[in-house]
Design goal:
Two copies of one chain form a homodimer. Chain A has about 120 residues and is mainly alpha-helical. Chain A has one domain: Orthogonal Bundle (Arc Repressor Mutant, subunit A), CATH 1.10.10. Helix content of chain A is about 55%, strand content about 10%. Chain A has six helices and three strands; from the N terminus they run ααβααββαα. In chain A, strand 2 and strand 3 form a beta hairpin. Chain A is globular, with a radius of gyration of 15 Å. The structure holds a DNA duplex (30 and 30 nucleotides). Chains A, B: Keywords: DNA-binding, Transcription, Transcription regulation. Chains A, B: This is Winged helix-turn-helix transcriptional regulator.
DNA sequence: TGACGACATCACAATATTCAAATATCGTGT
DNA sequence: ACACGATATTTGAATATTGTGATGTCGTCA
């Protein structure tokens, strides 16, 4: 039974939305809806500074939207599974929308280009 | 040239998320997922000042999340139909989640109480 | 018309967010 | 151990967002 005036759902959902409420971060999520990527990919695909890329990823990670995995020198990010029901449904809907019709156009093209033969090298 | 990297979808979706990325505003949306309400309802159900209520509703309205209708002295708010595909899917999923399992607990109870026999009187 | 209630907006201080450049950290190869 | 590349964090200044109280606007009813 919910006790506080604000239920957990609303609290965590607003947290999620706040993280997604930034164009750059949403573009990151959109790219991630196609699969795991490492930091350098976001830098080149989105044309961000290294510092900014890292920080936005940090915000998303803090909000539980993404999770990181280290592989050698590189850190790979992927969408994190959501525990809260509302968050889960929202992220799933978002990913589905992004995966279906490519909402990213040039971002994805740049990404694929940079993913060429040997990415991250 | 300006890499116009961001598609319309991403831009409008981040706008939506930004508006939803606040606990108070999300509680408003949650209440609205049950139907149309007038300003005084939010005030009492959420325990907000009149000024704050009005401003948060203004933010939501500005973001295209809600729309207003005047009826005599009162102004009624309801969720606005979304044009962009992504926004539409997201808001629908959110409303469905809120409508199903009451994510609001006390907010709704307070609301129903204040909605008694003759609301807004 | 004037008074009142509902709602919107303004003004202000507090707090938070933004970005880029500089700096720090961590893993890898030498 | 050292140097280097990849990523993270800190810094600081500009900007945005927040909530509150005061004020403005609009509609209603007498």
């Amino acid at each position: 039974m919910p006790v506080a005036a604000t239920s957990l759902d609303v609290r965590s959902a607003s947290r999620l939305f706040k993280a997604l409420g930034d164009e750059t971060r949403l573009r990151i999520v959109a790219l991630l809806s196609h699969g795991e990527l490492c930091v350098c990919h976001f830098e080149s695909a989105l044309g961000l500074t290294q510092s900014n890329t890292s920080r936005q990823l940090g915000v998303l990670k803090n909000a539980g939207v993404v999770e990181a995995r280290r592989d050698g020198s590189w850190v790979y990010y992927r969408l994190a599974p959501q525990m809260e029901e509302v968050c889960k449904a929202q992220l799933e809907a978002l990913v589905a929308a992004f995966a279906k019709r490519d909402a990213l156009g040039e971002d994805v093209e740049r990404l694929l280009k940079s993913l060429g033969p040997n990415a991250c090298k």
